TrEMBL record:
Family recorded in the similarity comment: Belongs to the NAD(P)H dehydrogenase (quinone) family.
Keywords linked to the UniProt accession: Oxidoreductase
Protein name stated in the entry: Flavodoxin-like fold domain-containing protein
Source species: Staurois parvus
Domain Flavodoxin-like fold: 3-195
Keyword Translocase: no
Source species taxonomy: Eukaryota, Metazoa, Chordata, Craniata, Vertebrata
Length: 213
C-alpha cells in the first residue's frame, strides 16, 4: 500500500509539472545509524565525541559523508517533502528515523534561536502520509491506542515544526491490510484527489491545543 501511495504522489505531482525526487531508503540501503563515520574530517574534540556538536561543525566545513550531503541537497531543493511510511510502534520505521537523525543536523535543519516558526525550513512544506495496522476507531480518543494526534505530536511538532516546516495535515490510510479491495482503492483515490490541490492547502496549527484539545 505504501508503494502505491508513493507511486500516486509521483504520478500526480509529475503531471502538474513538478520535479519529483524519490529517496527509497530500503532500495538505497540507507544507513540509519548515526556514528563517527558521518564526519569525514578531523573531530573538534576527539577525546569526548558528541555527535550533535561534531555534525554541526562538519556541516559548516562541508565535512559530512556523501550520503548525508546528497540527501541534504534533495531537501534544500524541495518545496514539499512527503514522508511516506507504515506506522511502526507509534512512530517512523527505524530507517526513516535514522534518515532524520543523520540528515537533519544542526546548522542545516535547525539552529538556535532559529526553530519552530522562525526555523530554517519555514519556506518548505512537509506532510506525513502513512498507513496503520489499527482501524480509525482504535486510534480515536475512546480507542485502545488513543487519539492519533497524540502520536503525531513528536513527529509533526517535535521534528517537522521544530525545523520550521509548514506542516500540512497528515494523510492517514487506516488498516489497509484489513479492508476490502474497494476500500483500498478509495484510499488511493482520495490521496490522488488531495494531491491535485495540495499547493492550495494551508498548514495545520502546530500548537499543543491542536493535538490535545
Amino acid at each position: 500500500m505504501n508503494g502505491s501511495l508513493k507511486n500516486i504522489a509521483v504520478d500526480v505531482l509529475s503531471k502538474q509539472g513538478c520535479s519529483v525526487t524519490v529517496s527509497d531508503l530500503y532500495t538505497m540501503t540507507f544507513n540509519a545509524t548515526a556514528t563517527r563515520n558521518d564526519i569525514t574530517g578531523d573531530l573538534c574534540n576527539p577525546q569526548h565525541f558528541s555527535y550533535g556538536i561534531e555534525t554541526k561543525e562538519a556541516f559548516k566545513k562541508g565535512c559530512l559523508c556523501e550520503d548525508i550531503l546528497e540527501e541534504q541537497r534533495k531537501v534544500h531543493k524541495a518545496d514539499l517533502i512527503i514522508f511516506q511510511f507504515p506506522l511502526y510502534w507509534f512512530s517512523f520505521p527505524a530507517i526513516m528515523k535514522g534518515w532524520i537523525d543523520r540528515v537533519f543536523v544542526q546548522g542545516f535543519a535547525f539552529d538556535f534561536p532559529g526553530c519552530y516558526d522562525t526555523g530554517l525550513f519555514r519556506k518548505k512544506k512537509a506532510l506525513l502520509s502513512f498507513t496503520t495496522g489499527g482501524t480509525e476507531e482504535i486510534f480515536s480518543k475512546e480507542g485502545a491506542s488513543g487519539d492519533i494526534r497524540y502520536l503525531l505530536w513528536p513527529m509533526q511538532h517535535g521534528i517537522m515544526h521544530f525545523c520550521g516546516f509548514q506542516v500540512l495535515a497528515p494523510q492517514i490510510s487506516y488498516a489497509p491490510e484489513y479492508v476490502a479491495e474497494a476500500k483500498r482503492k478509495e484510499m488511493l483515490m482520495n490521496w490522488a484527489q488531495r494531491l491535485e490541490k495540495i499547493w492550495e492547502e494551508s498548514p495545520i496549527d502546530c500548537t499543543p491545543p491542536w493535538y490535545f484539545h
